[in-house]
Write a structure and sequence with these properties.
- By secondary structure, the chain is an alpha/beta fold.
- It has one domain: Purple Acid Phosphatase, chain A, domain 2, CATH 3.60.21.
- The chain is built from 4 helices and 16 strands.
- The strands form 2 sheets. Strands 8, 9, 10, 11, 12, 13, 14, 15 and 16 form a 9-stranded mixed beta sheet that branches. A 7-stranded mixed beta sheet has the order 1-2-3-4-5-6-7, with no helix packed on it.
- The protein is globular.
Length: about 240
């Protein structure tokens, strides 16, 4: 589904057909090991699910020029766990094999990411400007400076892990979702987390994490299930 001019939601990723660019965010590799170490038993399903969903996307979108990982490749803040090392190296190799260029943006969980990136010879960036799309990619945990906003029409962030709760009064279901709104006169798209351990934060009930999201009630919601569904404004779902 085209959720913005020249930008299509496919699964939990955003596809720009003109520049053949795919944007994904918030894998949070190592989350299961982190939870297990804190006494919560979580099955290790995230890596397998990520690869399965990416394979489906890659089968639909051939000859991908560029893949942007928009922050939070891993979960641990102050270290690199054994699970993170193993899965990050394998995942970066798999993604690199399916595109010409891989862009890795540093998220707030990626405080120690350089050793992994160096091993795969990938640079780590604070942001990335896709000039032909006039689109700025930043993780979203802090606001961009004025200089980086010059000449752009759209900002794409992660960080928020948006989801929406749908209820018929008896049954409640939560779905990951894309959000589309405004920030500083620019269009703002919030990507869902490409993580399969947690469904994320309900945008109708929980406080926003990103400082770029202001007046979330005015944002449009695109829920992801078997396909992408346009749900209207957040305010209409309250």
């Amino acid at each position: 589904m085209e959720i913005s001019k020249g930008a299509e939601a496919i699964d939990l990723a955003l596809w720009f057909p003109k520049s053949r660019t795919l944007a994904i965010t918030d894998f949070q590799l190592g989350y299961e090991e982190y939870m297990n170490n804190h006494g919560v038993m979580v099955p290790r399903i995230n890596f397998e699910e990520i690869v399965k969903h990416l394979k489906q996307i890659f089968s639909e979108k051939k000859k991908i020029q560029r893949i942007i990982i928009n922050g939070d490749l891993k979960h641990e803040f102050g270290t690199i766990s054994e699970q993170e090392w193993s899965e990050a190296i394998k995942l970066l190799a798999f993604i690199s094999a399916n595109c010409t260029e891989l862009i890795l943006i540093k998220g707030n969980h990626d405080t120690i990411i350089k050793p992994i990136a160096d091993m795969k010879k990938i640079g780590v960036r604070d942001h990335y400007l896709l000039k032909e799309e006039k689109t700025l990619f930043i993780h979203g945990h802090k606001e961009p400076d004025e200089e980086s906003l010059k000449g752009i029409a759209r900002i794409v962030i992660g960080h928020e892990h948006p989801a929406v709760m749908i209820s018929d009064g008896v049954k409640h279901e939560k779905y990951k979702c894309f959000l589309k709104g405004k920030y500083g006169g620019k269009e703002l798209i919030v990507l869902p987390a490409f993580n399969f351990v947690s469904l994320g934060s309900d945008v109708t009930r929980e406080q926003s994490l990103s400082p770029l999201i202001k007046n979330i009630g005015s944002f449009s919601v695109y829920a992801v299930e078997d396909k992408v569904y346009e749900m209207g404004k957040v305010n209409n779902l309250l």
